[in-house]
Structure formats: C-alpha cells, structure tokens
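Throughout our pipeline, every protein is held as a single compact record rather than as scattered files. The record that follows is passed on verbatim for readers who wish to inspect the format.
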Amino acid sequence: MSEISIDEKKIINDFSDIDEDNYRSHILKIISLWKIDNKKKYDFIVLEEAFNWKRLAYLILDNMNVNKILKSKILLWISSPHLYAGFSEKEFKGLIGYEKYSAHLSYFYGIIIERCLLCFVEQELIKRQTSYGNFVRFNPDDAFQKIYEFSFTEMFKEFCEEYRIDINNYSELDDEKFTYWCFKKRVDFSEPSKLASDTKKGTTFLFRLLSSESKRLKINNTKSFSTKSKNIDYAF
C-alpha cells in the first residue's frame, strides 16, 4: 500500500460510505479534495502540468478499505477506456474541480492525443506502403520525422539529456514525460493550421479506437449473457 499523509487518509475516510452505486462520484470527489504540494513530485502529474487522474485513483483505491467485489468493480472502471470516467464532460469537470480538470486536459491532449497522432501517421505511412505494392518501405522513424521534423533518436536523446533520464531505469512515467515533452515541442514550432490538423488526426484515431472498443465490450457482454443463459438452462 502506497504511503499517504494523515490529511489524505482523512479525505478518504470522509467517503467511507462508498458502495457499488456511488464509487465513481466518490473517488472523483476525493480527487477534487486532494491537495497538491508544488514542492513535491507526484507520479500522477507529468512535468508539473499534465494530470493523470487514473493514477491518483489507483493510489486512492490502494488506501481504501473496500471488499474484493467492490475493489474489482472500481479497478475495472478505472482501467476502462472512457473520456470522462463515464460521466458527461460537465459532470466530470464539476466532480474533480476546475484546476484538476484543466490539468487533465493537458494530459489528454499532450499525452493521449499525442500518442494517437503518432498512431494515425503510422497508419497513413503503412497505407502508402501498401498502395505502392510494398516497393516503398515504411520506416517507423518516418512518423516522428513527419510530425516533429526530427528523428525519434534525436528527440529521445535530447529529452534524456535535458531531464537526466537513466535509460536502464526507464519507466512508464518517463515515457509519459517524453510524450508530453514532444507535444510541447510540436506546439512551440508548429503553425496554427498544422496544430489544428494534427489535433484532428489524433482525435479521429482516438474516437475510432473508442468505437471499436465499445463494440468489443458489447460483443463480450452478449457472449457472457448467452453463456449465463445456457448455464441456467442446463441447471434446470
């Protein structure tokens, strides 16, 4: 269990009535009350700007006294792909508060959409390779060159030197830092029209991904229901 302060424990304890009906709103309310000390470094805040609310939600859950069934439900909820934790944007913003919502947007556009942009461009390059009958070979570094006008190697080396990253101990958080750093570089040097175009590409890829995942979950739920029905039939 991760170490938290006495005040943070109190915030969690104030929502001890958490149950299967209110766990989503309760955890987001806890997040809204969570104090951020600018002197401390957190693994849920990337480069002091981008807020990964899910990572903080995991920390909160680690320090909650809940039964196994409820914990499984909460874990599934946190890990599921959704834009606003299953709420509308307005509801989500109201639950976690304006400041954390703004920092969440930095994470959303600077890390999630940035990664989606990279995937979108890679798909474009693969399609081009296919249309040319594989005579033009796709190099994975071409996507970085197209988006940032520098190779992955060049950018990664600069990033590691700037933040003194130990490659041997490279973590998920380091990777988020690198993605967000790339995003900020792109924002600083891109024309407004290109920024808008790239954002559209990234969001297009994300919504396609979410749509595909939604269909997959519906299929799995249908199969699960069908299996349960068969089991009931056999039981009788």
Observations:
- The two ends are 45 Å apart (CA to CA).
- The beta strands are 45-46, 50-51.
- The first strand starts at residue 45 and ends at 46.
